[in-house]
Specification:
The complex is a heterodimer of chains A (148) and B (368). Chain A has one helix and ten strands, in the order αββββββββββ. By secondary structure, chain A is an alpha+beta fold. Chain A has two domains: 38 residues; 99 residues, 3-layer Sandwich (Rieske Iron-sulfur Protein). In chain A, strand 7 and strand 8 form a beta hairpin. In chain B, strand 3 and strand 4 form a beta hairpin. Chain B is globular and about 70 Å long. Classes of the chains: A alpha+beta (148), B mainly alpha (368). Chains A and B meet through strand 2, strand 3 and strand 5 of A and helix 7, helix 8 and helix 12 of B.
């Protein structure tokens, strides 16, 4: 009977070794796959200033347009009073791109009906945070946007 | 179905040769034995076969679309335009694929509701329900990933929103969103990823789960509703009686799909431009409308928690309850009626229906 017990514990030890080896092998297969699924951080040129190919006179009072700013959409608009402003155009709710509504002089997201005022403050609907303000300057005829 | 007799000529002999080598008798025996109960709810048994058929239509048309489709931000829209306008019958294949996807989701929802209200998920068929519920999520995944592939404006913003939804989850949420998008934004990288998900990853998972689902149905036989179980009922043979009736339904479905494709070819819309605002009146496919509308009504914060996080956690909870219904409804498994589950389901259905109708109203004050 003593032999049987030894056999048994030896079997258990072998099963343990086999199981942990298989487990470790599996982890070594899965780890690279899981890492592969996560895209690398892109080293986009994170510009702090962009000169747009837009003339200041192209933007009429109480209207706006979307312009690219280091790969992200930015809303450039002129208030009814005539001031040029720029805000990040990605809605803080679920990332749609906002637009300037001339009839109400506000900024509106069509996806879930979020509304911001011309300072970028969220005033109605689901957006949880304001849009980020960017500096706008006019250099000659060209418009320059800069991180505030 | 019996093995061919030796005096059937060369063709019969060849058939017998093949049958001997693949163990055909087992399959033939199963087909011969399978019975379908006949009672007042028998019609609901056709929904599963219809779903399977529509799935195969999606596979066939999907494979055909692969021959012309190009998965890149610069070519995807143009290649679908080419399929619709230049390729002979391209409009037919693509419109059947798009219409078929929507009808497929409708049929599996109907299939699930009938199984739910007839309590076909009760013991010993819990696993059949769970695999079925997971297949429903896979179908929604197919719908969501396929929607982006034409790379039009609607799809672009629907994907922006849809891939931002998991980002609201605490903890791993933002990482999950990055994995889905293939980066921090919806770009051509997202299109590549969704393409891979739509034509390889989801089909592979679906094949396994669908196989399990269908095998389980064969293992346990057709469920009979509680109200019928105690009574005497007749049955019909699956082959050929039920199968031929199934086939009539499939023929009607193909006719309907072809008619829809011919009279209402699926729209392509406007090519996605990452630097244009989301258009007024934007909304997702019908089966996401209730969630979409729900997200509009949630305030920015609920008891200090971001509103959209509450919404996403709620959707997750609903999904989990849906998968686990057979384990939660203990009364049904003991063969007792469970009216509270009916009330809960009717309430959820009314809620989803009201939100869907609200989402279909014309958009509020669009931009000039």
């Amino acid at each position: 009977m003593e032999t049987a017990t030894t056999e048994y514990s030896r079997r258990r030890w072998l099963t343990f070794l086999l199981g942990t080896s298989l487990g470790a092998t599996l982890v070594s297969f899965l780890y690279p796959v899981l890492r592969y699924l996560v895209p690398p951080e892109t080293s986009e040129p994170s510009l702090s200033e962009v000169e747009l190919d837009v003339k200041a006179s192209d933007i009429a009072p109480n209207s706006g347009r979307i312009v690219p700013f280091s790969g992200k959409p930015v809303i450039l608009f002129r208030t009814a009073a005539g001031e040029l402003r720029a805000l990040t155009a990605t809605c803080t709710h679920l990332a749609c791109t906002v637009q300037y509504r001339g009839d109400r002089s506000d900024i509106w997201c069509a996806c879930h009906n979020g509304v911001y005022d011309t300072n970028g403050t969220n005033i109605s609907g689901p957006p949880p945070r304001p849009l980020t303000r960017l500096d706008v300057a006019v250099r000659g005829e060209k418009i320059v946007i800069r991180r505030a | 179905m019996s093995s061919a007799a030796p005096d059937r000529g060369p063709l019969g002999a060849a058939l017998a040769w093949v049958q001997d080598r693949i163990g055909w008798e087992g399959i033939a025996h199963l087909a011969e034995k399978k019975q379908v109960p006949i009672h007042r709810y028998t019609i609901y048994y056709y929904l599963g076969g219809m779903a399977l058929f529509l799935f195969l239509v999606q596979v066939a048309t999907g494979i055909l679309l692969l021959l012309y489709y190009r998965p890149s931000a610069s070519e995807a829209f143009e290649s679908v335009q080419y399929i619709m306008a230049e390729v002979p019958f391209g409009w037919l294949i693509r419109s059947i694929h798009s219409w078929g996807a929507n009808i497929f989701v409708g049929v599996i929802v109907a299939h699930m509701l009938s199984v739910f209200f007839l309590r076909a998920y009760r013991a010993p068929r819990e696993m059949t329900w769970i695999t079925g519920a997971l297949l429903l999520f896979l179908a929604l995944g197919f719908g969501f990933s396929g929607y982006l592939l034409p790379w039009n404006t609607l799809a672009f913003f629907a994907t922006k929103v849809g891939t931002d939804v998991p980002a609201q989850l605490p903890g791993l949420g933002p990482l999950l969103s990055r994995i889905l998008r293939g980066g921090s934004d919806v770009t051509g990288a997202t299109l590549s990823r969704f393409y891979g998900i739509h034509v390889a990853i989801l089909p592979a998972i679906t094949t396994v789960l669908l196989g399990a689902h269908v095998v389980l149905v064969q293992q346990k036989g057709m469920s009979v509703p509680l109200s019928v179980e105690s009574k005497k009922y007749r049955t019909m043979k699956f082959v050929p009686d039920f199968l031929l009736r199934d086939a009539v339904g499939w023929l009607v479905a193909v006719g309907l799909l072809a008619a829809l494709a011919a009279f209402f070819p699926w729209e392509l819309g406007v090519k996605a431009d990452p630097f244009s605002p989301a258009p007024a009146g934007i909304r997702p496919e019908w089966y996401f409308l209730s969630m979409f509308q729900g997200l509009k009504y949630l305030p920015a914060e609920i008891a200090g928690v971001p509103g959209e996080m509450v919404g996403v956690l709620f959707f997750g909870l609903v999904g989990a309850v849906l998968v686990l219904v057979p384990l939660l409804d203990r009364r049904a498994s003991r063969g007792l009626p469970s009216p509270w589950w009916n009330r809960l389901a009717v309430l959820a259905l009314i809620g989803a229906l009201v939100l869907t109708i609200l989402a279909l109203r014309p958009p509020p004050g669009a931009a000039p």
